Amino acid sequence: MVLTAEHKIFLINSYYRNGIQGDNGEWNYSIPACIAEFQEAYRGVAENHDYNNSRKTIQYFIV
């Protein structure tokens, strides 16, 4: 399954939305939390999706 532009935008927004600021002021982000939110929002799509592709998408835009 190929991610649409809508899916990619959702993943990137979710990545930042799930960020947690630590005591030292540094932000920490969780790809698994982002993927879990994607699975909940896109149940029909998420069931047949290769999540390595999602990780690559997030890392491509973030790193």
Compile the SSE list and pairings:
Layout: H1 5-17, E1 20-21, E2 27-28, H2 31-41, H3 43-46, H4 51-62
Antiparallel strand pairs: 1-2
Which descriptors apply to this entry?
63 residues; mainly alpha; two-stranded antiparallel ribbon; 4 helices; elongated
Account of the 3D structure:
With 63 residues, this protein is mainly alpha-helical. It has one domain (5-62). Helices cover 63% and strands 6% of the residues. The protein has a two-stranded antiparallel ribbon. Strand 1 (20-21) and strand 2 form a beta hairpin. Helix 1 (5-17) crosses helix 2 (31-41).
Question: Can I get a quick summary?
Answer:
By secondary structure, the chain is mainly alpha-helical. 63% of the residues lie in helices and 6% in strands. It has one domain.
As an assembly, this protein is single chain
How does the helix and strand content classify structurally? mainly alpha
Taken from the alpha-carbon principal axes, the silhouette is elongated
Low-confidence blocks of residues: none
Order of helices and strands: HEEHHH
Q: Strand order of the main beta sheet, please?
A: 1-2
Mean pLDDT: 81
Helix content: 55-70%
**How much is the radius of gyration in Å?**
12 Å
Largest sheet: 2 strands, antiparallel
Percent in strands: 5-15%
Distance between the termini: 23 Å
What's the number of helices? 4
Count of discrete structural domains: 1
Query: How many β-strand stretches?
Result: 2
